[in-house]
Design brief:
- The protein contains 14 helices and two strands.
- It is mainly α.
- The protein has one domain: Orthogonal Bundle (ABC transporter involved in vitamin B12 uptake, BtuC), CATH 1.10.3470.10.
- The chain has a two-stranded antiparallel sheet with strand order 1-2.
- The longest helix has 36 residues.
- The chain starts with a helix and ends with a helix.
Length: 339
Amino acid sequence: MFKSRLGNWIIFSMILIGTFFFSLFLGSYEFQPKELIKFLINRIVPGLFAGSWPDTYETVILNIRLPRLILAMLVGAALSIAGTSFQGLFKNPLVEPYTLGLSTGAGFGAALALAFWPGYLSVSLLAFFFGLLAAVLAYGLAWQGGETHVVSLVLAGVIVSALFSALISLVQYLVDPLKLQGIVFWLMGGLSLASWKDIQSAGPLIIFSILMLSLLGWKLNVLSLGDTEARSLGLNVEKNRALIVVLATLAASSAVAVSGVIGWIGLMIPHIVRMLVGPDHSQLLPLSALGGAAFLLIADDLARTAFIYEIPVGVITTLLGAPFFAYLLKSKSKKGGWT
């Protein structure tokens, strides 16, 4: 990558834009690239191009593909920037919403709402509350002697995930069979039911979280030095740590509320981007969001085209993320430090 900030921004932005347009043309219904571009421009600037387009353009592009691609970018960016924030805050490259138990906690909250209090507001609120509770529980369990160790935090995440997985199973056992199918499908993590309503409801929360976390990047740099050093530089450690945890949880839980549990993005993308651009969070946070958006677009492309039938995108990210997690765990144990 370029050593300059501008160069990195250009490269990551071009990757995302290229992936978006590639995904837009990808699908069982084929479009002529020239006609599709004319159609999209004509929707932005009506009357610029003469002629008319079949109704399939309106149905497939505007009602199916565009909302799905936009939601994929929002969810990928949210999960990635949340993972970056947690890794920097806990000084641990193995932490992300999934391994910390946050995704499972948010999944339990959303499943609880879907089962007994349907409606996006209740889904979002309960997903956020239980996601935050899971993060606090994992961090509290791993806190020993004024610090958190790598293995302790990973094990704490396993414990918290197991707890909320059991609670999800309990909800599935108690719920009406008609709702059970929807909950099971939703928990696999997928974007097949994406709509403009999902974007309108979750988009503002995700964008707000991404912007705020990106602005707090320099503070995360200071917090990464340690509590003593941060306090000596005049930073309110407890206040800023809590603010970053809440914002990261809001981003991840908002993503879970509209897409289900999609794991491992917050682990893989921040680590890859860190190796490319360095550990400066003022740059790492927004670039991780761009990288996560592009990655989930690619994963969703595989989910809907690589097999005869579409499979949940959460399956794809898990198949890619589990080996990557194993590599990181082995690499961490050998090097004994931050990679």
